[in-house]
Specification:
The chain is mostly beta strands. The chain has one helix spanning 260-265; strands at residues 3-7, 14-20, 25-30, 35-40, 45-50, 55-60, 66-70, 73-78, 83-89, 96-103, 109-115, 123-128, 134-141, 144-149, 155-160, 165-171, 178-186, 193-199, 205-210, 214-218, 225-230, 236-242, 248-253, 272-276. The chain has one domain (3-276): TolB, C-terminal domain (Neuraminidase, 6 Propeller), CATH 2.120.10. The N and C termini lie far apart (38 Å).
Length: 289
């Protein structure tokens, strides 16, 4: 698989890529740069919307707007105008910020938090429901990260990065509750931690490995690695499928905690990449609120 650098964005923490099949473009964020990117792969044009808060993730809405997990809560963002409409503030999350997020097949937006000072076990996973109420789904999380639902809507795969594990939960379409946690994958020693994640049409998980310089494809049925893509940067942060046939893997990276020497050795850190695969993913689920 050939790695193609699309945008040399030098993002501090590039994250949360999501393909908009209606517009044929990719949204993604630079969390610490407080920026939402909209990249057009055919032209490599990269539009940017600068916000006044950190943005952990965005998701598509049915009406064409975006739902954003800002540093302190949820908001609706209209990329074309730059308007930001607050929805909910996480008053119990002082000292934390929102991180990764994604919509489920039933149109709800899930996003979790992490400590700004690397404190363990003080984050939570929340679900913004279609009536704009918010449910707390998990507590005691350290770095809330990758989310992926199975096509049959039976399971949610989830990552709390420092555990170095991918968990599977029973998923209930009727309520944002998670039960029967099972570890399906453990990241090998010396390969960093699991970060952002997506699922392909065969039910396999594609996982960015922060500090591991790669995206790995794992079978959640056996826990074995089926494939891996090595990158010229170590902080590989997230991935998603996109393109006309959803067969391109878009990968975000970062440089935030690299030393000066490591940054010199990794001049592409923070770039957005594209990799052509032999599989494909699913269209992104949209928020229905």
């Amino acid at each position: 698989m050939t790695i193609e650098r699309l945008v040399d964005a030098k993002a501090r923490i590039g994250e949360g890529p999501i393909w908009d099949e209606r517009l044929g473009c990719l949204y993604w964020v630079d969390i610490l740069g407080c920026t939402i990117h909209r990249t057009h792969p055919n032209s490599t044009a990269d539009d940017q919307l600068k916000l006044d808060k950190m943005v952990g993730a965005v998701a598509l809405c049915e009406d064409g707007s975006l739902i954003a997990a800002l540093e302190d809560g949820f908001a609706r963002v209209r990329f074309e105008t730059g308007s930001v409409e607050p929805i909910w503030t996480a008053t119990a999350e002082a000292g934390n910020r929102f991180n990764d997020g994604k919509c489920d097949p039933d149109g709800r937006f899930w996003a979790g938090t992490m400590s700004l000072t690397s404190q363990r076990g003080v984050g939570s996973l929340y679900c913004l429901q279609t009536d704009l109420s918010v449910a707390t789904v998990l507590e005691g999380v350290s770095i809330s990260n990758g989310l992926a639902w199975t096509d049959d809507r039976k399971y949610l795969y989830y990552i709390d990065s420092p555990t170095r594990e991918i968990w599977r939960f029973d998923y209930d379409p009727a309520s944002p509750s998670l039960t029967h946690r099972t570890t399906v994958v453990r990241i090998p020693d010396g390969e960093g931690v699991p970060d952002g994640m997506t699922i392909d049409r065969d039910g396999n998980l594609w996982v960015a490995q922060w500090g591991g310089g790669r995206v790995s494809c794992f079978s959640p049925r056996t826990g074995t690695r089926l494939n891996q893509i090595l990158f010229p940067v170590s902080q590989v942060s997230s991935c998603t499928f996109g393109g006309p046939d959803l067969g391109d893997l878009y990968v975000t990276t970062a440089w935030n905690t690299l030393s000066d020497e490591s940054r010199r050795q990794q001049p592409e850190a923070g770039a957005l990449y594209r990799v052509r695969t032999q599989t494909s993913g699913y269209p992104a689920d949209r928020f229905r609120g």
